[in-house]
Amino acid sequence: MKPGVFSRTLGLGMVLLLACAQRQIPATAPLRVEAQLGQTSERTFRLSVRLSRPLHRLPFTRPGDGNRLRNFRVLEPVGARLQSHGPDEEIVAEAPFDRVVLEVTVHRYLPEKDYAPFFLLSGGGVLVYTGQFDVGDQDSTEVRYEFQPLPGEFVIVPGHAIRGPVHWTPQGDGTYAAFSPVQPVEEARFIAVIDAGFPEWLRIEARSLLPRLFDHYVEALGRELPIRPTVLLSYGDAEGPGSISLKGGTLPGWLLQQDVQLGSQWRSPDDPKVLGVFRQSLAHEAAHLWNSRFAIPRGPDWVHEGGADLLAWRALRKLGLLSPEEFFDRLSWAASVCALLRGSSALEKDVVRAQYTCGAIVEAVATNGESPGADLVWKLLLDAALRVGSYRVDTFFVACDEAGAPEQARNAAKALTEAGLDAPSTRIKEALRAAALTVIEGVAPADFTQFASDAGKAGAPWLRVAGTSR
Asked: In sequence order, which residues have a C-beta less than 8 Å from that of residue 371 and are 6 or more positions away?
C-alpha cells in the first residue's frame, strides 16, 4: 500500500472510531407494565398485565407469600404456567408473550416478615396488598395500575376514594387498596374505611380517637401531613376465645392499616383491655406517619419503633386516655421486658421486641422524661431530617441536644444502646435514674410473670418506674 493511501485510510478509521465513541449506546429500556386489577366476585380478582416488550419469563418482584402458587391461576397466554424459581415465583411460557391474565383467589395468610396479601372485611369488601402483584425487576420496571371494583362500589388508595376505576402508580413495596361497598369516612385530616363488621363500641372508639390523634400529632410535632392519609381498619373474630390480635403498619403513599381480631371472651362492649390495646396500636401507627413517612429512617429499628411507642403513650396521656399512673405502667412494662430481652451486644442487634421496648426506654431517658420531652425532640429531629430526606441515630441525639436534654441523660441513653456485660436490669436502672426517674425492683404483675415464664426466664426482675425524683 502506498504511504498516501495508508494515511487516508487511517484518518477515516479514526473519524469512525471517534464518531462511535461520541454516540451514546442506549441502555435497555425499562420494562413498562400496565396492570389492571379487577374484582370479579367477593372472593376472586382478575389481574391483566400488558408488557412493553415480549418475554419468555416474567418474575414477580417480591418473594411469594407461601400461597401464590396455589391461589394464582394463569389464564393467558395458553400454555403458560406459574412456577417456583428459588424463593420466588415467575410466569413462564414456551413462546414470548406481552400479555398475561391471571385469576386470583382471595386467601388469608399472615407471613412473618411481610404484608398479608388480603384482609377480608367482615362487613363486606377486601383489603388487597398491591405489592404481591408487582412484576419484573424492581429497579428497572415501571408499573401502573388500574383498579376496578365491583359495580357501584369504591376503590380507596392513598389520596383517592372513588366509586369506580382508579389509576394508581405504586411507591416502594406497594400499599393496600380497599375494594369496598362501604362509603369512606371523610375527615379533615384523613380518609378512613372502617369495616362494617367492627363491633359498634369499637367503631365508635375509632371514629372518636382517630381525629384526636391526628390533631395531637400535628400540634405536638409541628407539621401537617402533605396529603390526607388513608386509614384502613378491618375486623374479624379470632378462633381462640382468649385471643386479642392487632396487626398493622404504615405503608408508602401515606396509608395506615390495622387489622383487629378478637376472641369470644374479649367482645364485651367497652372492654378496658381491648380499648387499651386498640388505642395504643392506633396511636403507635399514627405516630409512624410522622416519624417514618416524612423522612426515611436509616438506622436501627429502635429509633423509630421505640419513638413511636413513646410518642403514642404521650399522645394518649395528653388526650386523657392514659392516667399518669397508667403512663408509668407502660414505661415499667417496657423497662422490664427490655431487661428480660436485652443482650450484651449493641441494641440494634437484639431481637425485634427488645428494639421496641428498649428503644422506648432509651428515648425516655435521652429526652429527659418530661423536660424537654419526646415531642419536642421529634419535632426538631423531623426539622433536620426533612432537609436531607432521612435521619440516623446521630440525628436523634443531636435533636436531644438542641432541645436542651442534659448531657448526663443523653450519655446514659447512648450507653444503653451500646454493647455491655453488666446485667441489663442494672444498666436500665442507671439510665432511668440519670434522667431523674424513680425506678425500683418490685413485685411483678401476673401478666409479666407469665410473659417471663413463657420466655424461659421465670423470676425476671420487675422494674417499677415512677415520676421524676427531683
From this structure: none
